[in-house]
Structures are given as C-alpha cells and as structure tokens.
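Extended Data, record ABC transporter, ATP-binding protein
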Amino acid sequence: MSAILSIRDLEKTYEGGFQALKGVSLDIEQGEILALLGPNGAGKTTLISTICGITTPSSGRVSVGGHDIIDDFRAARCLIGLVPQEINLEPFETIWNSIRFSRGLFGKPRNDALLEDILRKLSLWDKRKSQIKELSGGMKRRVLIAKALSHEPRVLFLDEPTAGVDVELRKDMWDVVAELKRDGVTIILTTHYIEEAEAIADRVGVITNGEILLVQGKDQLMAQLGKKQLEVQLNEPLAAVPDSLKSYGLTLSENGSGLIYSYDTNAERTGITALLNDVARAGLTLADVQTRQSSLEDIFVGLVSGEQK
C-alpha cells in the first residue's frame, strides 16, 4: 500500500529553546493502525498537533494524501479527524447539532443517515437531543469521537481517546476502530493502555525526547525484541539463589519459591535443559515450571529506558 501520511525531518522548537520534535521522519500506510507509544513529554501530542495544523513546525515537511499541510492546508485538513485529549465542547449545544456543525465546517453536504449511524455505534443516539453539559465525562468523550468522524476522514488521530473513561466506551471505541480499518481509514493511536495497542495495532512506533526510536510491525517487534521467562517453582522457598546456579542470571520470585530465568527464543540454545539439570543437582525439588512471553509493555519500558540494544 502507498503512504497516506508522509513526514520528513519534522522539527518543532518552541520559544525559549525547547525542542519538542527532533527530525521526525515517518511514512504511514493507508488503512493501517499505528500505535504511537512514549512517556509523558515524549512529543506525541506535539507531533499530532503539528500534522493537524494546530502547531506550526519549525522545519520539515508533512503531506496527507499528497497535500502539504502548509501549502495546501485546507485539503490536507479535510482528510484528518482528530480526537484530542482535552474535552472542549460547547456546553449548551445538543449532541446532534454539535456533530452536524462539525460536518458543515468541512464543507460536507448534509447526511443525517451517516451521522445517525455514527451516534448509534457510539451509543449516543438516544441522547442526541441532550445538551453537552448534561453528559458524563465518558459521554463527552464519545461526542468528541463522533465529531471527529462526522466529515468522513481518511486519517484519524486518537490522542489518548480512552483515558479515564469506562470499559464500555473503550469497547465501543475499538469496535468502531475495527470497522474504520475495514473501510480503509488510517488510524494513529496514542495510548497509555499498552494492552490496547498490543491488541489492535498493525505497527508500533516508540517516541521519546522528540525522536522516533523505531517503527516496526507489532509481530515483528515482538519476535525480535521479545523474550521469554521461565519460572521454576520450588517446593521450598529459598533465601537466595544458590552459588551453583548464579551463572544463569536467575532472580528469585517475591516469595522466594520461584527461580526466574530469561532467555531469547531466537537463540540457537535456550539453556533451559542445562538449567533444569543443574537445579536438580543443587538438590532443589521442582513443583512446577511456567513460561511467560514478554508483553509489548515490557518491550516499551526496555526501549525507553535504554535496556534494549
């Protein structure tokens, strides 16, 4: 597939000298879901704000659907839907009028059937005549999502869309995301719920200190950087790892009744057979053996802390 969003050498330096983006380059393909992960202050929101025209870049270029965000701003922005972190809605407006107005802002013709479908998918249809000020925080978040979808964008930015909202909304949101992907919409997601990124993303990007550390297919990333842990559970707890086993780099579980061994699944030899033999030679009695695959969260934490090489 071709790239619908192309970013080249994008930099943003604020007045005072703080550099929020440092030469970011990235291509995002049409119809993919990219999860953008990074700690607070990494540059995620600045990147999104710059692409959406809220923040002016210091240098570099961005195009959306072939339209430059500076030279051809209106055409580029019409292709973008944005669900921001902050809830900023007109409190005395109704849900229905709010999303109709948003669609009109982009010059789209009236399409009540489309808007009804969006509201139904987000469980807002029955409340369409309610004023925004009457809604809960979770419902207001749903309205933001409906407004972002009202003009049928081809690129949708979700900036922490489910932060602090109920489980039901999160499920509704991911159901809508799955359907949008089927329709060919490109979705860029930032989230602190890393398990969500792991569940729905095609690729994962990691950003920290204004720089992209990597962008890679989720499955490929897990295969290359993911490690497994083997926990040897013992009948009797230990106060410390026996000297004869220290060469394996083992750690004790919290209660002392488990020996935890990390190994690379891609290595020619995992060392598990030798470990189990040495555990028996040390006079330790096994109660059970369990393995655990590194999660995306484990990998992310390792990357931003500099542990992954």
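Summary. The chain has a mean pLDDT of 88.
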